[in-house]
Every structure is written in C-alpha cells, then in structure tokens.
Amino acid sequence: MSLLIVRPAAPFDLPHLRAAMVELQEHERLLHATRLPGEAVADAYLAWMLDWAAEASGAAVIAEVDGAFAGFAAGWIEDESNIAETPDSNRFGLISDVCVLPAYRGRRVASRLLEALESHLSRGGVTRIRIGALAANRAARASYERSGYAPYEVVYEKVIGTDGE
Q: Residue 116's domain spans which residues?
C-alpha cells in the first residue's frame, strides 16, 4: 500500500508545481482549443495562482505518494457582491486548480487534495466551496462529484464570426 500525504506547498516545490502546471495546461489543450501551450503560460500563471492564494486566505497543497510529487491543488476565498445572491453565496471558497500527474490518477489523490483545501477554506468561515472544470473533462467532473460537488452554474459558449462575417 502506498503512503499518500498532503501538505502545504513550499518554495522547494516550485519546479514540481511548474511541471504540473504544464501538464494540466496541455491536458486541457487536448480538450479545448482555447488553451494556450503549457510552456507559454506556466510561469506567469503559477506566480499569479500562488500570489492570489496567499493574498486571499487561500493555500496551495501538494500530494506526495511514497515521497514522490503526485499533484497539487490551489484555492482561496472569493468575496463578491452579487445582489441576487445570499451572503453565504457571495463569500465562498474557490478551488482554482487541481492536477494529479498521470501515474497517480485513479488513486483518489484529487479527493485528498480537495479535502485538504476544504479544511483550510472552512477555517476562513466559508460554507460553500466552488470548483470549475471544462465540460469535456469528464474525469475531473466525475472526481469532483465523487467528492460531493454538484453543478452550480453552467456556462454555454457559441463561437461566432469565424467565417468572415
């Protein structure tokens, strides 16, 4: 049986986080044409994600299996002012990114990462946590639903004006 631990990200994790960010971006590129190459965005996105997590009462957590980097998740607290929503819906935890490396998928690593972030964000007083996924990312959606998440809003997209109009 493998030993799975989840811990806060540390500065020495940056090379692994960057590689995982490239992996995540490339995986999503296969699912939707709007995603840029992982190498083109990894550094800027990783810096933004880590800065925002630190600034907004969030965290980045690392999963290790038998001491090897297996994946990460990051999230923070969002405060909105949607007048049509309840107060507990306007202040919520947002899980921005989850990545489990291919060799570790199917072992409930994502569930453990989500649990760690849920625990962290709940200490910030939120009662709702949200996470998004590309519609075509069936594996991620199934993982999130196994962890108790349910669809909240659905975003539709229509590409127009591509035939010279």
A: 4-146
